[in-house]
Structure formats: structure tokens, C-alpha cells
Amino acid sequence: LAFASYTFAQVKVSLTIQANVQNAQVYIDDNLAGYASPNLSLLIFPGTYTIRVVKNGYQEYRTTITAAATPITLFATLSGGAPQTPSTPPAPSTPSSPSTPPSPPPYTLPLPITIPEPGFQLSIDANIDGARVYIDNVYVGITPYRVTQYRGGHVIRISAPGYADYVESLYLYRSTVLNAYLSPLPVSYEIRLPDNLQLEWRTNNKYHDKFQAVQLYLDNKRLDSLRGELLPGLHTIAIDYYNLHLEDSFDIKPGQPVILQLGLGVKVY
Fold first, then answer.
1. Torsion of CA 123, 256, 231, 217, to 10 degrees
2. In 3D, which of 169, 170, 116, 177 has the Cα closest to residue 146?
3. CB atoms < 10 A from the CB of 110, how many?
4. Distance between CA atoms of 153 and 207, rounded to whole angstroms?
5. 56's torsion region: left (phi>0), alpha (psi -120 to 50) or beta?
6. What domains appear along the chain, each with residue ranges and CATH number?
7. CA 34 to CA 41: how far, in whole Å?
8. How many CA atoms lie less than 13 Å away from 96 in the CB half-sphere?
9. Looking at residues 103-113, what average pLDDT do you find?
10. pTM for this one?
11. Taking 60 as the threshold, does the pLDDT of residue 168 lie above it?
């Protein structure tokens, strides 16, 4: 029980640093502990530490302290630089009793210093240049895209007109290359026939004539409607009218509905 009591007796000691200038940087064992504006108060474990108080244009203040159990107050006077607004003078310390030995100056450990983890290279490529890139629902740029990103989970979304969004969740723990493929969305089309064939097509379809004189084929599949949807790319359309057969090819771009005007050839609008 005595050992346990001694172990938990290692309590922290109060350290107060008062500087004669505003926003002076306070370093404890060369680690930035905070800013004296003009005072800085910390809690540290018992031990011996090197204290530095610095500010541009002033001569550095440096001292070594040993923290035991009694609170410590340091008065850091930085000489040089522009005149400062005088701070409130410290309260006079009460002289110790002749019978009480002076206690060593207290010192507190600096506040924990968080060192950010190094970032990792994230490269995003897609089959569509200029696609919009979103990381965690925030727009960041277009493909191809390069960024240094910190470790952790992220949601990547890539979007382009006429294509389905590409979405992927990943945990970044090393440099990563993401190759995204955006699938094109179907495009609506309308076929327009010459007036005489248009009328005959409508009449035959009205009465469900399977042997109608006007027959249309799209990519070798017979049509029963003049409207529909196609995936972007190269397609073939053909028309049979009695002994007449006309066939032509056309190209559909992503996200662009088209009108196919049939005659002696195909015009795409």
C-alpha cells in the first residue's frame, strides 16, 4: 500500500511564465508549449527542463528549472525591440520564512504537441477527361486529378454529363491511384420518315399489320416504334419499303438526344 501511495503522488506542478512582451513563444525542451500574452500557465510533471521565451526583434530569454511540488513563476524579460504596452506587474512574492528552505522552481510538462501524419498522394484518372471530382461531397477539381490527402476513409465521386456517377469508398493509408470508368447513360432518339412513309407506318401500326410495307431495323433489330433509347456510340439503321432497301450508320454522343431524319440517307440532329 505504501508503494501505491508513492506512485500516485507524482502530481503535476503549476508553472506560470510572465513575459514583458505580448505573444512571446514559450519553448520547453525545444517544444513549443504556447504563447505568453503576456502570461502562460501550464501543468508539468516534476523534473528538470530548459525554458526559452522568444520573439522576433528581442533577445531570447533562457533558463533551466527543476520542478518538485511548489508552483513556479518565471518573469521572462526580453530586451530590445519596439516598446511594448506595459503589462500588469506581478504581485510581490511573499518572502519565505527563514526556517523554511526555498523550494525549487516548479515546472509543468508542456501541453501535448500533435504532429500531423504525413499525407499520401491520391491520383484519380477516368475514361472521361474533365469529369468533376468530389471528395467527401466537396468539389475539388476535374480529371485527371492529383492531391496529397491525409490518412483515413474518404468517399470519391466522379461525375460527367451523359454518364452515370462513379462512386467509391476507400481508406487511404498509402499513395493510391484510382482508375474510374464512367458508364454512358442511354440517349433518347426519334426517327422521322418522309411524309408518305410516315403516314403508311402509322396506318399499319394502328392495325398491327405484321406485313406492313415500311419496315425499320436498328442494329439489325426490327422496330415497332419511332422513339426509344440507345447507348452512345456507332449504330446502324435500315429501312425496307417493298423492293427498296436503304441502310446507313450514325454516331450518338453521350448526353445528346437525337432526331434521325430518314430519306436517301440518315441525318442526325
1. -160
2. 177
3. 19
4. 60
5. beta
6. 1-112 (2.60.40.10), 120-180 (2.60.40.1120), 187-268 (2.60.40)
7. 9
8. 8
9. 68
10. 0.48
11. yes
